[in-house]
Amino acid sequence: MRLPVLVFDIETLTDLKSGAHLYGLDLPVADLAQALVKLRRQESGVDFQRLALHEIVCISGLWIDEQGSMKIFSFSREQHSESEILTKFLSIFDKRNPTLVSWNGSQFDLPVILFRAMYHGLSAPSLFDQGEIDQQKRYNNYQNRYHHRHVDLMDIMAMFNGRHFQKLDDVAHLLGYPGKRGDGAYHVPEYVHQQEWQKLTSYCEADVLNTWLVYLRWLLLKGQLLLNDYRDLVQQTIQFLSTQAQHADFLAIWRDTSQRTEFTAVDFISFPTH
User: Fold this and answer.
1) More confident position, 14 or 181
2) Domain boundaries 5-224, corresponding CATH code
3) What letter would DSSP give residue 145?
4) Domain residue ranges of the chain, discontinuous segments joined by +
5) Does 272 have pLDDT greater than 80?
6) Is the predicted pLDDT of residue 184 greater than 60, yes or no?
7) Taking a C-beta distance cutoff of 8 angstroms, is the pair 129, 141 a contact?
8) Backbone dihedral angles phi then psi of residue 21, each to the nearest 5 degrees
9) At what angle do helices 197-222 and 248-257 cross, to 10 degrees?
10) Among residues of the chain, what percentage have pLDDT more than 90?
11) At 71, is the secondary structure helix, strand, or coil?
12) CA-to-CA distance for 250 and 231, rounded, in angstroms?
């Protein structure tokens, strides 16, 4: 495992202002969302908006440094504009070149970040350079599908075949991790509109944590982690989450789901029950 590692995820809403501008709509704000959904259905047959119209309301990350210490963080609309969220996230790459880990990051998260950074006139060469500035990134950059500076687990585990794409929730749950079972609904619009920022960041961070656990299992599969090292990192993750009050539910669900597979049944043996 090449450290540092940054596991990340974004949450978005439809940018109504940009959508109105793109389609030339002169409607009250209350009617815009429904109009944009109808237009999108006519275009593509689905409700999911084109990437450039996804306004970022939260970016969460789990940072694992060279010493193996962990830190989880979120930049959300509670305190920051979208431009400020992006600036803070992109500045990480100006200082460090972490291994970036995501689920569907190649097809969603990074393209959305690209479009929204351009929308706000931001510069992010450390993330989007493909060798024009740093020649080393010609051979290992964050955009190339087959480079491992950015590990998109959904793409890799599907062996780069879209017919094999899986949901993070399903894969995590299948492997004995929490996923989002019991509450699979998409709550982001509700959290933003009701200004429930703690729920928003916990929701986003849960995806980050599930992605991290799947990443560890993928490294074990590839032989980049030995079994003892894998077990140590799982225990370290459990110990870390035990200090994070906002993830007590995640830890409790993990304790339960870990018992559903023989391999993960030992995850909490050394962790006391409170």
Assistant:
1) 14
2) 3.30.420.10
3) T
4) 5-224
5) no
6) no
7) yes
8) -65, -45
9) 40
10) 89
11) strand
12) 19
Q: In angstroms, rounded to a whole number, what is the distance separating the alpha carbons of residues 33 and 199?
A: 23
Determine the average pLDDT of the residues in 113-136.
Answer: 95
Q: Which residues of 201-239 are buried (b: 16+ CB within 10 A; e: fewer)?
A: bbbbbbbbbbbbbbbbbbbbeeeebeeeebbebbeebbe
49-to-12, 25, 42, 56, 109 alpha-carbon distances in Å: 11, 16, 12, 13, 14
In the chain, alpha helices (H): 16-23, 29-44, 82-95, 110-119, 125-128, 153-157, 168-174, 188-193, 197-222, 227-241, 248-257
H or E element at residue 100: strand 99-102
Mean pLDDT of 89-93: 96
Q: Residue 43, SS3?
A: helix
Question: Contact 49/59 with Cβ under 8 angstroms?
Answer: no
Q: Three-state DSSP class for 9?
A: strand
* Token couple for 74: 């979120």
Q: Which tokens is 175 given?
A: 């492997």
- pTM assigned to the model: 0.95
Instruction: Please list, in sequence order, all residues whose beta carbon lies within 8 angstroms of the beta carbon of residue 166, skipping any fewer than 6 positions away.
Output: 154, 157, 158
